[in-house]
Amino acid sequence: MKTLLLTASIALLSFTSTQSVAHNITPAIVSADSSADSSLCVAIAKDKPLLILKRLKQARLNKHQAKKVLRCNGMTASEFAYKHNAYKAIARLNLAEEKERYAHNSK
Question: Do the Cβ atoms of 93 and 63 come closer than 8 Å?
Answer without folding.
Answer: yes
